[in-house]
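Milestone 3.1: sequence recovery, worked example.
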């Protein structure tokens, strides 16, 4: 059967089961789903909007029958092309599935559909919250967070999404619906962890059981002007020695220059949180460290602290304002190698004539590098790809890994991992998804 013909037949079958309104085929709709926050583009043949796990299962079965690729999508805030249908086929938009199934306030447990977003999660319990808010604005969905094993500035204290996940319902690439959950708190996590961070390549999450932590009593955030990246390293050492309970620490490099056209080379944001008593002690310790180092800083409480983390979306907005796209890579290195990694990104950017912003978390050794480029200039696209590849190689040679938090997306991880590990991953993929219909072109190569 001709490819086009099989796509038409599959769309007809899906529309007759889910309803015409759940299948979008207009050019405008397809175009709206062809982007993520990276600014890269790939247009799907159709967008399917399921309402139940059974709908998802039906869609996957039909796609399997016709060999049509499927790309799950949450809110499309990925910075690495994760929800883009780079091999064509259908995008499955999970946002209609955003309900709360049940909750246990005492234990902070909540079972939700996978399309619910961080803002909605934050409204479930008055004294609990979702600490993983990667895009800063609360748009990311639970499905996207699990698929990327997302991290956030608060990951120092709360870990990544996998640490909050107690169980998941997933539709496998053959359409089977599986519940991976123990009756009590999870003990044998190996299968659950296999799915966490699988970037939509092993199945579509339809619901999840999460445990949300309590909101801390008090919070203070600090904005600190640094003269160069080495200052961040010294600051991190002093903080570690002092025993201050830092819950978030991020350094933005080159960012002010690109956004405001001026300013210091690096800006650090730190948050401390806890009881009033702890906060008072830590606040005075931190202020004395900052004073001794003569770093200009501003401190702020509660809502103003939230604005700081909302500021993360500027990373994406700077690209929009400049009408450019982002090639982003997320790396994790030992903290002592953060400076080398950031400097390598700078050198690569200036050699290839691409503006570069980096955000790093000194305590986690987590570095996000974003190169800005013009997506319609082929030469620039090629230079941006080379830039990412160069930073990945450098990071690996320093002993780093790729994909922490953000996922690898179209960057894939083949060059990052041991050959044996990659072949094990391929065997798992082949076993679960022999036709490679589930988000092909991401994470690993066929
Ligand atoms: C300014 C900015 C800053 C960011 N900073 C961070 C950061 O610090 N840390 C971080 O982790 N991320 C960060 N991101 C990226 C992004 O917010 C996260 O990766 C987020 O988890 C994606 O959620 P989403 O719902 O938008 O998923 P999408 O972007 O729609 O999809 C992401 C991936 O998840 C898969 N997926 C989505 N839903 C499902 C599902 N139900 N089942 C199976 N697979 C699914 C997709 O196929 C894709 O591979 C940032 C984004 C922006 C715009």
């Amino acid at each position: 059967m001709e490819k086009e013909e099989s796509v038409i037949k599959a769309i007809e079958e899906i529309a007759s089961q889910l309803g015409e309104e759940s299948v979008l085929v207009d050019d405008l709709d397809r175009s709206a789903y062809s982007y993520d926050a990276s600014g890269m583009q790939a247009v799907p043949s159709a967008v399917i909007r399921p309402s139940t796990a059974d709908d998802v299962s039906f869609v996957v079965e039909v796609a399997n029958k016709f060999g049509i690729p499927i790309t799950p999508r949450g809110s499309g805030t990925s910075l690495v092309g994760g929800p883009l249908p780079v091999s064509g086929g259908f995008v499955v938009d999970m946002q209609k599935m955003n309900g709360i199934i049940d909750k246990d306030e005492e234990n902070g447990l909540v079972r939700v559909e996978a399309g619910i977003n961080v803002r909605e999660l934050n409204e479930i319990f008055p004294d609990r919250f979702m600490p993983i808010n990667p895009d800063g604005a609360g748009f990311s969905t639970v499905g996207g967070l699990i698929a990327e094993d997302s991290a956030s500035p608060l990951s120092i204290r709360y870990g990544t999404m996998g640490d909050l996940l107690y169980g998941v319902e997933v539709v496998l690439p053959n359409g089977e619906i599986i519940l991976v959950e123990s009756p009590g708190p999870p003990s044998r996590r190996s299968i659950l962890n296999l799915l966490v961070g699988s970037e939509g390549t092993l199945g579509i999450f339809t619901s999840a059981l999460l445990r949300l932590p309590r909101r801390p009593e008090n919070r203070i955030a600090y904005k600190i002007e640094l003269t160069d990246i080495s200052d961040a390293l010294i600051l991190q050492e002093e903080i570690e020695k002092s025993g201050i309970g830092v819950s978030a620490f991020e350094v933005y490099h080159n960012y002010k220059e690109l956004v405001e056209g001026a300013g210091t080379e690096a800006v650090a944001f730190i948050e401390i949180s806890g009881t009033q008593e702890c906060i008072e002690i830590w606040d005075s310790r931190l202020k004395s460290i900052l004073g001794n180092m003569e770093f200009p800083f501003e401190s702020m409480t509660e809502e103003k602290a939230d604005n700081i983390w909302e500021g993360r979306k500027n990373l994406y907005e700077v690209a929009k304002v400049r009408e450019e796209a982002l090639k982003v890579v997320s790396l994790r290195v030992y903290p002592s190698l953060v400076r080398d990694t950031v400097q390598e990104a700078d050198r690569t950017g200036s050699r290839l004539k691409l503006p570069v912003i980096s955000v790093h978390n000194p305590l986690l050794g987590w570095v996000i590098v974003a190169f800005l480029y013009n997506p319609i200039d082929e030469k620039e696209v090629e230079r941006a790809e080379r830039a990412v590849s160069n930073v990945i190689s450098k990071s690996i040679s320093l002993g780093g890994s790729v994909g922490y938090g953000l996922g690898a997306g179209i960057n894939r991880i083949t060059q990052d991992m041991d050959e044996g590990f990659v072949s094990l991953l391929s065997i798992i993929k082949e076993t679960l998804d022999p036709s490679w219909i589930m988000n092909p072109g991401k994470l690993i190569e066929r």
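The mean pLDDT is 91. The domain at 322-411 is CATH 3.30.70.2740 (Alpha-Beta Plaits).
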